Automatic annotation (TrEMBL):
InterPro entries in alphabetical order: P2CMN_synthase_LarB, PurE_dom
The name this protein goes by in its record: Circadian phase modifier CpmA
Organism whose genome encodes this protein: Phyllobacterium endophyticum
Pfam family, one: AIRC
PANTHER family for this protein: PHOSPHORIBOSYLAMINOIMIDAZOLE CARBOXYLASE-RELATED, SLL1489 PROTEIN
Signal peptide: none
UniProt record, GO biological process: 'de novo' IMP biosynthetic process
GO molecular function, one term: hydrolase activity
Chain ranges of the PurE domain: 87-225
Alphabetical list of Gene3D superfamilies matching this protein: 3.40.50.1970
């Protein structure tokens, strides 16, 4: 079978992150060809931005081999790494509308063997919801903050939590929210020092950043530094 795709099967050995397939913009036929390549190598793949329509367009054999999550539009094809880390990462979603992006981060981490804690609907409009969970959040060395609209959650966490904070602005909102631009700018301009900010709706990127941090922790631990 001919394909326009060259899969990066050696990525994990180079940078500690597995190959992932961004399905938006790819045809069903292209995705099918990619899955065939992975199957021939016995490799598992993380599929992101995989719509239900494209999933249903795949052959029955390929479709049945995918663990699909409609909330995050992600799929696990083939083998998934065993869980090697728990309670290292907390994913905090400001509102229920932000959960799709939060789940993309969660699924990306799980595919890599990291089980994250997801806490949703704790935005600043009802600050008590966040403060009630604050001690639980603080037990995690890495926190991913997912928020749209004014994205105030990121700054609040940045002033209360000592761990690494990775921020994901979402496109949730309307009018002045500008499809996530306002949230992005608010996170970038935050007064809370040391926040890391990803692109709009990029749960995958936030999870990848968390995996890089975890990998750095492990290298430091083994080096004795």
């Amino acid at each position: 079978m001919t394909t326009e795709t060259v899969l990066d099967f050696d990525r994990f050995n180079r940078i500690g992150l597995d190959e992932a397939i961004f399905c938006a913009g790819k045809s069903v036929e292209q995705i099918e060809a990619i899955l065939e390549l992975a199957e021939e190598r016995g490799a598992g793949l993380l599929l992101t931005r995989l719509t239900v329509e494209k999933l249903e367009g795949l052959s029955a054999a390929r479709r049945d081999a995918i663990d699909y999550c409609a909330v995050s539009s992600t799929g696990f094809f083939g083998s998934v790494r065993r869980i090697v880390s728990r309670r290292a990462v907390a994913i905090i979603a400001a509102g229920t509308s932000d959960v799709g992006v939060a789940r993309e981060a969660e699924r990306t981490l799980r595919h890599a063997g990291v089980e994250a804690t997801v806490i949703a609907d704790v935005g600043v409009a009802g600050l008590w919801r966040l403060t009630e969970r604050l001690e639980e959040i603080r037990t995690h060395p890495i926190v991913i903050a997912v928020a749209g609209m004014d994205a105030a959650l990121a700054s609040v966490l940045g002033g209360l939590v000592s761990g690494t904070i990775i921020c994901v602005p979402t496109s949730v909102g309307y009018g002045a929210a500008e499809a996530g631009r306002t949230a992005l700018n608010a996170m970038l301009a935050s007064c809370a020092p040391g926040l890391v900010v990803c692109n709009i709706d990029n749960g995958y990127g936030a999870a990848s950043a968390a995996l890089r941090v975890l990998s750095s922790y492990e290298r430091l631990r083994h080096s004795g530094v």
